[in-house]
Amino acid sequence: MPYNPLKTSGFFLGRRPSRSLLPLCLALLALSGCKEEKHHKQPEPMVASPAPAPSVADAAGGAGSAATRQASLAYSHSITVRVPLGSFDKHYADLRDACLHDQTLHCLLLSALVEHDGADDQSPIAHVEVRLPHDQVAVFIARALHPLSGEKPGDVLAIRQSTRAEDLSQPVADATTRNAELENYRNRLTELSKRPDTKAADLIQIERELAHTQAEMDNNATTLRDMTTRIDTESLFIAFQSIAPQKENKPVSPIREALAQSGSLFTDSIADVIRFVFGALPWVPVILGGAAILRFAGRRWKRAPFRWPWDRTPRA
Q1: Category of 106 on φ-ψ map: left (φ > 0), alpha (ψ -120 to 50) or beta
Q2: Are 75 and 230 in contact (CB under 8 A)?
Q3: Backbone dihedral region for residue 150 (phi beyond 0: left; psi -120 to 50: alpha; all else: beta)
Q4: Which residues of 271-282 are buried (b: 16+ CB within 10 A; e: fewer)?
Q5: Can you tell me the distance from the alpha carbon of 22 to that of 84, in angstroms, rounded to the nearest whole number?
Q6: CA count, 13 A, side-chain hemisphere, 118
Q7: What's the pLDDT tens digit per position in 82-127?
Q8: d(Cα 190, Cα 203) in Å, to the nearest integer?
Q9: Short-list 225, 84, 193, CA closest to 148
């Protein structure tokens, strides 16, 4: 009889399993259920895990660098304001006097100009250029756009505005570094000049180099101070344009219009006649010659009788 492993192991399909195997099967099922539960619960911490928050030092460094870049920008503004012609000088004088006399603005007048072009004076020119603190720029622009007494809100209008920012962080850093180098060099020269064994010729050379270094330091300090002023304040250029009063267009009579244009019409007509005469003169000989030829041919035609080409009859 052949060997059957299923029968010998007790797992033959036709027989019932032994009772001693039931606890073992239940334990295997429990272990498999625990494994499946662990397998389903493993991804949950990965999904729910939050992203690592940035460190305080990184956040402070990014904000500090951005603040440094923002603090090194020099702003300049330009605006063109259209005002009525009758109050053109008043608007110009109001802004100029406000910058000169209003202490709350902390305004520095850089330039002011007004120019009238002649008797008509329909297009005057004026501008005011000032330097203001950051918080006073909007106040000064609002004053430039504010209507004066007797004007409507739409009479004063800003027709062109522009803003430009220049980054001065690198020039300021270079000037600061250069100033420190020059100061260190000056201190070394000063120490050399105080040595007792310094010769007179060397002392003269040192004093000359000290004067040159001090002059360069003064120029560098002036440049650094100008850039600091440009960063701490803003430049504002306001130009004025005028609105010419509109004239009423009354209907013009056709007779009056024709009389007004009579001089130009007469001149144009004479010009047309002159053009025709000088243009026709070269054709006069040609026309006269053609007329003579036609007249001569007509006379010959009348003298000779008409004959057909095939007519061989001798002439009388």
Answers
A1: left
A2: no
A3: left
A4: eeeeeeeeeeee
A5: 107
A6: 2
A7: 999 889 999 999 999 999 999 999 999 999 999 987 656 678 899 9
A8: 10
A9: 84
Distance CA 132, CA 130 (A): 7
Q: How many CB atoms are closer than 10 A to CB 132? A: 21
Q: Which two tokens stand for residue 81?
A: 């304001």
Read off the pTM: 0.54
CA 92 to chain centre: 27
Number of Cα atoms under 13 Å in the Cβ half of residue 242? 21
Chain-centroid distance of CA 51 in Å reads 41
The radius of gyration of the chain from alpha carbons, rounded to an integer in Å, stands at 53
Task: Return the structure tokens found at 76.
Answer: 């300049």
HSE, side-chain direction, 13 A CA sphere, residue 53? 4
Residue 102 to residue 112: CA distance in whole angstroms? 16
DSSP state, 165?
A: E
Is a pLDDT exceeding 60 seen at residue 261? Answer: yes
177 or 305: whose pLDDT is higher?
A: 177
Report pLDDT digits (tens) over 242-256. 876 555 555 667 887
Q: Using CA atoms, how far apart are residues 169 and 172, in angstroms rounded to an integer? A: 5
* pLDDT at site 293: 86
> How far apart are alpha carbons 28 and 245 in whole angstroms?
103
The answer on pLDDT for 67 being more than 80 is: no
